[in-house]
Amino acid sequence: MPFNSFPFVLLFLPLVVVGYRLTIKGLSLRMARGFLLAASLTFYGFYRWTYLPVLLASILLNFGVAHRVAEAEGRTRLRWLWTGILLNLVILCTFKYASILRPVLGHVAGPAFALPDWGFPLGISFFTLQQVAYLVDVYENLLIPQRLGVHALFVSFFPYVTAGPISRGKQMIPQLERGGREGDRALDVARGLAMFATGLFKKVVFADCFRTIVDKGMTDPFALSSLEAWCCTLAYTMEIYFDFSGYSDMALGAALLLGFDIPRNFDAPYRARSIIEFWQRWHISLSQFITTYLYTPIIRLFRKATLRSAAVATMVSMLVAGAWHGPSWNFVIFGGLHGVGLVVNQTWKKKSKRRLPAAAAWALTLAWINLSFIFFRLPDLHSALHVVRMLLPFDNPFGGSGILLPVSARTGMLQIAEVVSRPALWTVGLPALIAAPLAVLGPSSHWWLDDFRPTIATAAAVAALLLIAFLFMNSANATDFIYFRF
Amino acid sequence: MPESAERLHRGRPAMSATRWSALVIITVAVMAGAFVAVNGSIDPMGLFHSRTRIVIYTNERWSKYLLSIRYVPEQFDAVLVGTSVTGNWNTGFMQPLRTYNLSIEGGNIYEERLLLENVFKRRKPRVVLFCIHPYLTASYGRQTPYMTNRDYWSALGSLELLKTYHARRRVERHVGRQEFNEFGQQDFKIPVRPWRAQAIAGGRWYVVDERSFAEYGRLVASARAAGSRVVAVVPPVNAEQWLYTADAYREYQHRILTFFRGDELVIDFNTAPYDGLRGDRSNFPDGIHLSSTAADIFVKELARLVRNGTDHPRGFRIADSKTFQVPERTKRQSVERTAPGTIR
Known about the structure:
Distance between the termini of chain B: 81 Å
Strand order of the largest sheet of chain B: 2-1-3-4-5-6
Strand content of chain B: 5-15%
Shape of chain B: elongated
Structural class of chain A: mainly alpha
Largest interface: A-B, 35 and 43 residues
Radius of gyration of chain B: 24 Å
Helix content of chain B: 40-55%
Structural class of chain B: alpha/beta
Largest sheet of chain B: 6 strands, mixed
Number of helices of chain A: 20
Mean pLDDT of chain A: 85
Order of helices and strands of chain B: HHHHEHEHEHHHHEHEHHE
Low-confidence stretches of chain A: none
Number of strands of chain A: 0
Number of strands of chain B: 6
Number of helices of chain B: 13
Oligomer: heterodimer
Radius of gyration of chain A: 24 Å
């Protein structure tokens, strides 16, 4: 039951919101938490119920280890922490990276020892990281382990269980114990509705339109001309932003409708003028996790923070972050490119007094991000390198393969008349033309949260967003979220 | 607050958050409901009302999937299962057997099964004509995101529906061309282009996907089990291409004909009586598909053969007293006047 489906929007979400509020008012907070836990597990099981035992096993394991960490003292405490972290990594690797080991083990040990294909439980990368952070927080006495019901709800809470944002225990658990955040409930519902509508619109109108362009071009990347390669790669850069930030807005909106505040994940990342700034605005919950639980401990290992130790810590962190996305060298290269970008950025900041003009800094940052996403999108290194080469207009700069753009074979000019006559211009091209400037110049959708005022104008805007989103949602180009694969 | 947001709020009276939420929900419910009601009453795909004549304007897969739910089973006695090779066959010539052309451009037997299942759910057709062409079994699965249960609901309001309205308006204003007729025929208007038989013969349609092949057999069996008469139709291949592919084609044909019973009619247009038509390059503008004129000739011949075959009380037969009359225009080669169908 994805967020961008009618059963979720028209049935599940309203029922859970109403049911939760009624249970709190009519029965008890404990019953309401139980209701929310049951709803979250139903939501998760709806994708594939066979993955539910994996989620439940992970919850029970971390619940047990957290209590051991809290009760133990001295070195035993540290030992329990490492045991917990290792077990989490084993679970993650078993499901996520078994595809690499399977052929190797089958080749070495023979078919009798072949690893079975367990599939890939949805959200495993997210709820595993969330629980690793939880264990560390318990170890550092930032959290006291809770009852099983609260812990289970903290991990499986439906707005974030499938693709984040990775939520910290110290933010979520007090809210879960109180039954929501403090503040005006009615205003939270209104803000949640606005946020959810914005996210839904970003996903089903903008992201899915860009996906149409990307899929058409990336199906056969070797046929792309330079012009088409630029169109395709920029379209993917836009698609992934609107897809993931749309999902995150919906998660935030759904949580607010229930009265909970979960971390913000995006803050207009394509307005960033450096890679450092980009990671402060893109997948914020992951970059905060990496900074806190990976980068900082590595820096501590060096005992002294220097430019060199920071560079090593940055590269290691970003390579791990890249590999976290999946068992592919392309993801490692994606992480590596961002690592290099961050190191160059840090060094420039320290060593040089000169600052690039704002427009140049922005363009350079966006170009680097665009380059890295080529490796993120394409399935193998060969095709990714080919598309990178095609970005340089040396051979076949405008030549019409005709995959995306009708280009005159004689003049190399775009055939505007043919583009205009295509219905796709209105259902794909127009949304894309509106979305791209919004992504690079527009505000973050969080202004709904910070500066929201209930007026006729905002009501009309949100109603329009929902109506247009429903129209697109009911069409065949509505697809799953990109980050459900991770 | 960003400037755009400030502009949005300036001078507007605020309301309570509860009232705001209620206003949004009621507005969306009323407007969406009205939109759905209007589309439901227009019902261009005949899902909610009985329609006697529906023409496809855009998106063949989406449209034929929806038409196969109610329009086709209610209005037709027979269906033609095929690919683009039979897509421009005007089955209107099959009268009095009202036949709908379910062929899909670039379609495979998996997609054809989805259509046929819809038809059978409502009413079984008297006759199912199965095109025998390797392209039908060259791939497996849906080729597009269409032809799912979601399409049913998209008939109440979706981009596809809006595109249909738009295309219909263009046709009515004589800006766009009417490509389909009410029998599901798509008039391609194939541009004449130079073609080499050798290049066409090397196409991917000679690759057989075994899942698709098995699916073909299951579909023939299920049509037969439902009580429909099944007819195998081998569409004509141009004579030059035939020189390169006859063996492979016959081998494929031999394999797929095992799905048909001995008393079922097999109409093969790659036999001697049709050599004249097949040898005329102008009948195959792109080397693969028949021109509109040639397609009409073959469909009329198909109608005659099926009519004779189905008239027989015990099933199909071939021994037709009439013989195929080659139109004057195509009498360039001598044509052997023998009975055109073959029965096994």
